[in-house]
Amino acid sequence: MLRLPRFRYLQPKSLTEAVHMMADGGPDAMFVAGPEELHSTSAPAVHMMADGGPDAMFVAGGTDLYPNMKRRQQMPKIVIGLAQLEELRTIKGNPKEGMVLGAGLTLSEVTEDQRIQGAHPAVAKATELISTPLLRNMGSIGGNLLLDTRCNYYDQNYEWRKAIHFCMKKDGDICWVAPSSPRCWAVQSSDCAPVMVAIGAKVKLVSSSGERLIPAAELYNDDGIRHLNKRPDELLTEIHLPPTNGWRATYWKLRRRGSFDFPVLGVAASLHLAADGTVEDAKIILGGVGSYPIESTASEKLIVGKKLTEETIREAADAAYRPAKPLDNTDFAMSWRKDMARYYVAGTLRELAGLPPVLPRSN
Questions:
Q1: Cα four-point dihedral sign 209, 13, 34, 103
Q2: How far apart are CA 296 and CA 84, in angstroms?
Q3: pLDDT digits (tens, 9 = 90+) for 2-38
Q4: SS3 for the chain, per residue?
Q5: What gap in Å lies between CA 39 and CA 37, rounded to an integer?
Q6: Considering only CA atoms, which of 30, 21, 25 is closest in space to residue 48?
Q7: What pLDDT digit, counting tens, does each position of 196-242 carry?
Q8: Residue 130's CB: how many other CB atoms inside 10 A?
């Protein structure tokens, strides 16, 4: 059984208190050595003063951080819990003017909210496809947007990684996926990220020094290690969904099993159609095939100004094949995953055009 390492747990009572805990230290924290000591009558809690800074991390549902800590991939000395902050669990606004989702909303809450289902069905669909019901009840939408990048050589226990002398992403100096590469190729595997980029959502980042609102696309870097354009002391507090204004979007996910698994390919498509069906604007974003959500600009250019016919859809799907560059660091054969980008882009466009689906060949 993998056990959590020792850490100190802080539970702020407000958003302001949370960001100040990260920046300046805070009130007493419980010293935690893992679940077995939490329930042990012979191991009473020891209270200590907290330190802020890079050794501290925020946690909401913990469905990503705690498994990483058990595998010794991330080792914060302090964990600042956010699950009890109601400020992060609100939904404000309306579809015509835009909606603001608190980053602490659980994935289940986002999936089941009728306002989100009606205005942004692609968001509700993406959250519904994440993991299992139990984990969706715990995991937050903000946490999914900040999901750590994944790789077959990284997402293993400590002993396994030590046996291969670790990898560049943690404790080593080589990328086992591409040993001659100077960078890490771990894969961005958030289901929500491609959708938020496709629909033009924005995210609010808050710290003790202020706040900033940036497009979701600017939150991600093309680097398996430094995959977020976010300082460690910044807290993701809100996701701003734009007014729909005639836009329609969808999300398709490829994975081995019908539930639980991370995407090995995710395609989010968002279109603005004229009354006659002409595509006035388009966003096609690929997830799971790179270290960040990849925009298929060539596919977008091929359909803007045209109607979605079988020919234009096929051309756009073929164009999406080139920017999809999966490597041998996740499930399925990488050449097949790359080829599936064609089928999934075509599938999303056919859905948005109201055309019947065409099933891809099996692996």
A1: negative
A2: 39
A3: 999 999 999 999 999 999 999 865 444 444 544 433 3
A4: CCCCCCEEEECCCCHHHHHHHHHHCCCEEEEECCHHHHCCCCCCCCEEECCCHHHEEEECCCCCHHHHHHCCCCCCCEEEECCCCHHHCCEEEECCCEEEEECCCEHHHHHHCHHHHHHCHHHHHHHHCCCCHHHHHHCEHHHHHCCCCECCCCCCCHHHHHHCCCECCEECCCCCCCCCCCCCCCECCCCHHHHHHHHCCEEEEEECCEEEEEEHHHHECCCCCCCECCCCCCEEEEEEECCCCCEEEEEEEECCCCCCCCCCEEEEEEEEECCCCEEEEEEEEEECCCCCCEECHHHHHHHCCCECCHHHHHHHHHHHHCCCCCCCCCCCCHHHHHHHHHHHHHHHHHHHHCCCCCCCCCC
A5: 5
A6: 30
A7: 999 999 999 999 999 999 999 999 999 999 999 999 999 999 999 99
A8: 26
**Tokens 């099993």 belong to which residue?**
257
Give the pair of three-digit tokens for residue 218.
């600017």
Read off the tokens for 113: 């909210």
